[in-house]
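Write out this protein's structure.
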Amino acid sequence: MSELHKFIFDGLPVRGSIVRLTDAWTEMLARRQANTATGAWPPPVAELLGEMAAAGALMQSNIKFNGALVLQIFGDGPVKVAVAEVQHDFSLRATAKVVGDVGVNARLSDMVNVGNKGRCAITLDPKDKFPGQQPYQGVVPLHGDRREKIEKLSEVLEHYMLQSEQLDTRLVLAADSKVAAGLLIQRLPLEGEGNLAGSLVSKANEDEIGLNEHYNRISILAASLKREELLELEVDTILQRLFWEEKVLRFEPQTPRFACTCSRERVANMIRSLGVEEAESIIAERGDIEVGCDFCGQQYRFDAVDAAQIFTSRGDQPPVAPIVQ
């Protein structure tokens, strides 16, 4: 069963979380494999999505937020967009739009950042929005400060956390056909850090240097975790091997699961956004409107009567499209 564990290091402003997606991840792969319209993702794309799903779960675990965390990678390669969405209850889903050939050894830059135009966006979409409230979104490029291409998703997200949240972060990610897993370590800021003056500054700096040493030590230990270990070992074994000299306090584990938020109503809203003329044109040409969910493979069909009801029940004004369908 999939599992997510949060923990802290007693006496230190350092926190961590570790996730292993097993049944949740294999169900996503199986649904994609069973979709006759698309077939399975190429292995490098599946690995990227697995890492994104694991990373999304880790990031969701560290925020107090009732809504969806949506992690998107997009650019100018054969993978036009890859998306992982994690709800506050750790139900998750992921998909990618692939329009070209992806080599068996393709790297991140080969898939989405061929011309250095790739971007990573993290969106927090509240479940119950206030009137006029917009989702929060942060975007970072898939290259470093000197325009060098970044080949690891973990490095992209570490950069995002430092730039957007001012949190030093170490992230280790891995995925194969059976497991998608990740380990996250973060240094938490001191109380009042960066907001002290006068004689307190030197003392605060001394404290910060000492605490940075603790974070750096734990971060280096986390970085020593190998891909094979993260994929194959149990959570207890990993934490014991890495942090056996530290006092680790663990919280009640969570159970991530696959779940899709698609519905006939949401698809109807999408058809409504097309407008009456476009919907009638599709029905005249094909006999009905058929829409498949990229996340779970569910097929939705609307005939002429169904389409007519869409535009008569709530008017013909298209609604605002949701972030992720």
